[in-house]
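Per your request, structure below.
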């Protein structure tokens, strides 16, 4: 069966796999393949109707309450975060590490921020609690537009439905859900200020977790994840759109182990009634966290953060 990579058009040495939907336990099977040239792991044919795989209880759609603090609360949160960040080992195994990291990249609190694929706005709320003011989100799968009292605006739309340019654009585990990554990168560039920063946080291939679990790797997440990029495939997309990868930080967590172990035992992520699930002891979890930190250091973790800017004169 001939497969053609949607990133580099390669048809040689591509390897097919059969992966099941396991987040909700539907167990529908989908064909994926790895590209023998750019290394991108991708779905062969995306399902025509995706609504089934983004039901109302999909985690990103959970309604949020506006608990935005005042100025004193912002200062307290910033101080608390700095203290926690300083004293916490294995920083890049924390799911919110990038919130601290962007401060070191010069993202000031008065800049315009766009969160693409934001769901109900979890990360925008975190940014708001740290004092960021101009926050916009976009997600085509939410039920309707969301306008919070704290000023956060989220539109039920894709990038083509948003106007204006932004100083910081983030895609926090959203890029892998998009069917046309090259076109998305072009649109992201158009929405990015000339001196702005684009952050794309995604699962990556290859990784230790893929080698260990193969199609039971939890971040394959068939069929919602269309593309699991390699460093090379991300570089190709950036090069074709006049963008440049400035830095890559691996930030995988213990989730790659305990989540994948569940799939290996045919246990969906969303728990099924009447099923007993294995207990994860504190020592086991700590060992997984340490292992994730080592893999990140060796660039073998299962997810990474790509910091991208426009090329000069592009």
């Amino acid at each position: 069966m001939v497969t053609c990579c949607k990133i580099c058009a390669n048809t040689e040495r591509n390897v097919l796999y059969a992966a099941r939907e396991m987040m909700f336990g539907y167990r529908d099977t989908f064909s994926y393949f790895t590209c023998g040239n750019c290394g991108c792991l991708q779905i062969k044919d995306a399902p025509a109707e995706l609504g089934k795989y983004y039901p109302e209880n999909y985690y990103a759609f959970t309604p949020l309450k506006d608990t935005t603090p005042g100025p004193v609360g912002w200062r307290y949160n910033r101080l608390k975060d700095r203290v926690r960040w300083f004293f916490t080992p294995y920083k890049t195994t924390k799911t919110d590490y990038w919130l601290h990291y962007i401060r070191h990249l010069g993202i000031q609190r008065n800049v315009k921020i766009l969160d693409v694929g934001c769901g109900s706005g979890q990360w925008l709320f975190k940014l708001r609690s740290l004092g960021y003011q101009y926050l916009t989100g976009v997600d085509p799968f939410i039920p309707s537009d969301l306008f919070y009292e704290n000023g956060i605006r989220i539109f039920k739309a894709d990038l083509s439905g948003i106007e204006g340019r932004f100083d910081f654009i983030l895609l926090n585990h959203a890029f892998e859900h998009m069917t046309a990554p090259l076109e998305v990168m072009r649109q992201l560039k158009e929405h990015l200020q000339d001196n702005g920063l684009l952050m794309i946080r995604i699962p990556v291939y290859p990784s230790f977790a893929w080698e260990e679990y193969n199609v039971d790797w939890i971040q394959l997440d068939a069929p919602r994840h269309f593309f699991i990029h390699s460093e090379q495939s991300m570089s190709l997309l950036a090069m074709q759109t006049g963008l440049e990868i400035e830095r890559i930080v691996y930030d995988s967590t213990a989730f790659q182990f305990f989540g994948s172990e569940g799939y290996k035992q045919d246990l969906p992520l969303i728990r099924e009634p009447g099923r007993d699930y294995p207990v994860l002891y504190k020592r086991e979890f700590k060992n997984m966290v340490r292992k994730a930190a080592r893999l990140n250091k060796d660039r073998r973790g299962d997810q990474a953060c790509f910091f991208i800017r426009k090329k000069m004169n592009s």
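Residues 62-214+242-310 form a domain with the Rossmann fold fold (CATH 3.40.50.150).

Regards,
D.
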